[in-house]
Amino acid sequence: MKLTIATLPGDGIGPEVIAEAVKVIQTVAVRFNHEVVINEYAIGGCAFDEYGAPLPQATIDGCLSSDAVLLGAVGAPKYDKNPRGLKPEDGLLGLRKALQVFANLRPIVVYDELIDASPLKADIVRGCDLLIVRELLGGLYFSTPRGFEGEGDRQRAFNTMSYSVAEIERIAHVAFKAAEKRRGLVASVDKANVLETSQLWRQTVDRVAQNYPHIKLEHILVDNCAMQLVREPRRFDVALTENMFGDILSDEAAVIAGSIGMLASASLGGTVGLYEPIHGSAPDIAGQGKANPLATIASVALMFRYSWQLEDEAAAIENAIKSVLASGLRTADLDSINAISTGMMGDAVCKAIASSELF
Predict the structure, then answer these.
(1) 81 lies in which domain range?
(2) Of 191, 237, 275, 290, which residue is the catalytic one?
(3) What pTM did the predictor assign?
(4) Which residues contact 97 (CB under 8 A, 6 or more apart)?
(5) Rounded mean pLDDT, 245-249
(6) Is 251 labeled as catalytic in the residue annotation?
(7) Is 247 a catalytic residue?
(8) SS3 label, residue 210
(9) 107 within some domain
(10) Contacts of residue 178, Cβ cutoff 8 Å, sequence gap at least 6
(11) What's the CATH number where 242 sits?
(12) Residue 357 has what pLDDT?
């Protein structure tokens, strides 16, 4: 196959982890006889510095003309005072909207080799395998009205949490279909005891669930879900949630896996999928070779699986990640004493893909 990929390295450690992911893509292409075309575009703070905007039109056009998009990370303290619309994060939100990717899939998998890296007890996290399905284009992040009004001590800020039935239905279907391929459990996360949006969310999810009588549905309040994620994470299979709740809960779930540097994501729903690690730009370690590229590399596996339905290629990457972890290799987030560099970890994954028996 000919695979056209847009890479958006972004800020901080973004260029470092994307560089390792590109090496993995090229290794997979050689092993499975694919032709790969990779084009790089600017996003975030670096795009603002060069083009005066965190999401230039050329980046949008390049992404929409690709088969898939691989993003690093955006953001840095130097841009914190930029006005709304010119912050690096505005580039990310704008990209999601331009691609119309409304469903964010965040798998949380605990590797046996990393059980000790989690701050939670081994008997709590061992065998944990859950999927967070997060609605990505609604809620507080996108709904209007929003803004500031007044001045001085009378100034106030406001955001609107808003969801339509159609928005809830389409993300609910994604969660139920994902559960069909897993353990058949959906936990729908809301705050229905307080929020009208959550009450509509719960009613709509209940109605969608009637199309999936073989799937077990439970409703769980977001505060209870946050507690249960660290108390009994194995009870979850697919967690369905709105935008902001999903953002917070998936970062909390990172402790289950041992490091946020291990967690990949796929954003789907439009014609072009967006793949990225869930970690940020980590400007404090940028350029030092300390970043963990495995989340970005795992995002590449999701790319092969969801954008091209190339399951063998996805499995090859995931098996390679397991192999390097089993061999004892760790980046600084997992082992500060015996850590290898970002590049060495990427090389190890490539070597495992190229040399191991995968089938």
Answers:
(1) 1-102+262-359
(2) 191
(3) 0.93
(4) 137, 142
(5) 95
(6) yes
(7) yes
(8) coil
(9) no
(10) 105, 131, 133, 238
(11) 3.40.718.10
(12) 61
